[in-house]
Each structure stands twice: as structure tokens, then as C-alpha cells.
Amino acid sequence: MKKVTLHTAATAAAILSLLISLFFLISGNIPGSGPFTIAFFLFLALAFRGNESLKGYAYTILIFAAVTTALHYPQHFIQWGDFKLKGLIVPLLQIIMFGMGTSMSVDDFVAVVKNPKGVAIGVASQFIIMPTLGFFLSGLSGLPPEIAAGIILVGCSPSGLASNVMAYLAKANLALSLTITSITTLIAPFITPVLMKFLAGSMIQINVVNMMIEISKIIILPIGLGLIFNKLTAGKAEWLKKMMPLLSMAGIAMIIVVITAAGRDSLLTIGPILIVIVLVHNTSGYLLGYWSARLFRMPESDCRTVAIEVGLQNAGLASGIAQKLGMIATLGLAAGVFGPLMNITGSLLASYWHKRSPETEAS
Predict the structure, then answer these.
(1) How many folded domains does the chain comprise?
(2) 354 φ/ψ sector (left φ>0, alpha ψ -120 to 50, else beta)
(3) DSSP-assigned letters across all residues of 269-303
(4) N or C: which end of the chain has fewer CB within 10 A?
(5) What is the pLDDT of residues 25-58, one digit of tens each?
(6) 27 is a domain residue
(7) How far apart (Å, rounded) are the C-alpha atoms in residues 259 and 319?
(8) 41 in a domain, yes or no?
(9) Containing domain of residue 322, as a range?
(10) CATH code of the domain covering residue 131
(11) Which residues contact 248 (CB under 8 A, 6 or more apart)?
(12) pTM (2 decimals)?
């Protein structure tokens, strides 16, 4: 009964906040609409949490609340005292990667031996489809080189942790999803810099060796420490496994907020174009990933896995790379837009597939 009451109250508050926000916008008072737009997203997330069929989208709505806050009040997310908040991006990514390492073991990679075809197709599709799409879309975008190169950077990044959650919700092959994510993440320090040099070298200066070293610091080192921690504790740190997903979600949200605040002026200028480009990039990844698996006659559940692994990128890692290159406000913009959008499209796709059994579709 309490849940229904909370859901109803939150829904009413969300509608009221939206109406007030629209009133300020129509009146031309954009700053005045800010607090009510933020309140709308917060109440909407609360309302979604109170609905069993919608609560999976609550985190995405919170991301929109965070992005809206950063757009209206960027000064609070650029610098605190003498400390520039963009310095948090890499440490947050390392914490997320450490958490990924604690959930992995050597046994996880036995799946590569058991299902080499699925893993090979998934990994190859990831590093062929999205970088190629990013290259062509960046050329068509007409955006400044440093911003356009960010589209390629997102495409050259591995699949993100969100893909595993979406694969589970979509009734896909979760074991295959976990393996593809692990493999693409671990080889990213070697593949991503080479792809960036080849595809984006004419747009921005790329030092392949330096990029390899920086990505290794973000990925290989923390994941390695996580694996060692998991081995030494041998299942005695269950509290950490429960806490890491929450820390990861909070970390991703903070990264998106910092990127949005840093690139606010550019985002407001070229935002609509970038949103369309990123949406095409993301959804085309799902489509081409799915049919690349279909082409090799993989089971329906595996096709869903490859589609999700290809379409969902590690936007956080792309942001970290942009930060290390000193171009978070330009090169990192595409990643800042890709993160929230892929959560929406991924949730919608997973929800659609969740209601349709892979066995039924295959038959």
C-alpha cells in the first residue's frame, strides 16, 4: 500500500514540476526552469522505482537529472577550490575497473575455449562495426575535428559494464556477454590506440604508445588488482561485490556530470547534431551487431548478446582517454552524450526482448 501511495505522490509531483518548468520556459525564463526540471526528473525516477515494470529505468532518469543539473549549474562541477573535478574521472574509472576485476576469475575465461565462435564473432564485431560507423558518421557530421574525433573514440572503446545488465534483462546469453566484455576490455589498451591512430589520426594528434600506457593504467592495473583481491579473499568479501555495482553507477553518473559541465558551451551549440549522430551510432550498433551474429547462424540468445555488446560502449573509458589527452571538453563530448542515450535505448531494447523468449523467436 505504501509503495502505491509513494508512486502516486511522486508521479503527481513530477507532473507538477514539469508544468512549472514549462511555464518558465515559455516565459523565456530558462534559469528559473532549472530547479523544476531537475525536480521533475528526480520525482519521475522515484515514481519509476515504485512501478515494477518501470523501475529498471529509474537510474537512466537519474542520469538525466544529473545532466540537467550540470547544464544549469556547471560552475559547481568544474572546480572546487583549487581542485579541478575532471581529475576525478580516471580514479573513478579505476575504481569501476577494480570492481570488475573482483567479480572475475581465471575460470571465467574457460568460456572462450567452450564457445570460441561466439566470443570471436562478438569481439570482432565490436572492434570492426563501431569504429567504422564512428569514422563515417564523424565525416558526415560537419563538426569541429576534436569533437568529431570523439565519435570515433566512443566507437573504438570496448563494450561497457551496462551491456552485462542489459544482456541479463534481454534474456540473452549472459555468460557470453561477460566473456566478450572481459576480453574486449582487456585488449582495448592495445587495439583502441591503433584504431584511433588509423581512423582519427588526421583529426587529432595520437601517440599510440602513450595512449596504450594510459589505457593500461585505467584498465589492466585495476582489473589485475581486482583479480588478485578476489583470489586472496576467496569469496570472503561478498559485501564488496554487493557494493561495487552501486559505486560503479555513482561513478558513471559523476563522470557524465563532469563531462557535461566541462563541455557545456559546446554542447549547447552543437548538442542537437551530436545527439542525432550518437543515436544513429548507438542504434546502428545494435542492428549490425545482431545481424553479424545472424550471418554466422548463431542462436537467437547469442545474437541478442552480440547486438547489445556492440551497441553499448564504455563511454566512461572514452571520457578517461579524453581527459588524459587534455581534451575532455571537446573529445569527451560524444562520450558524455553517448552514456545517457545508450542507457535509454539499451533499456528499451532489453525490455522488448525480455517479453519475447529467444526460443520462440528462433522457432
Answers:
(1) 1
(2) alpha
(3) HHHHHHHHHHHHHHHHHHHHHHHHHHHTT--HHHH
(4) N
(5) 999 898 899 999 999 999 998 888 877 777 777 8
(6) no
(7) 8
(8) no
(9) 83-362
(10) 1.20.1530.20
(11) 95, 96, 99, 161
(12) 0.81
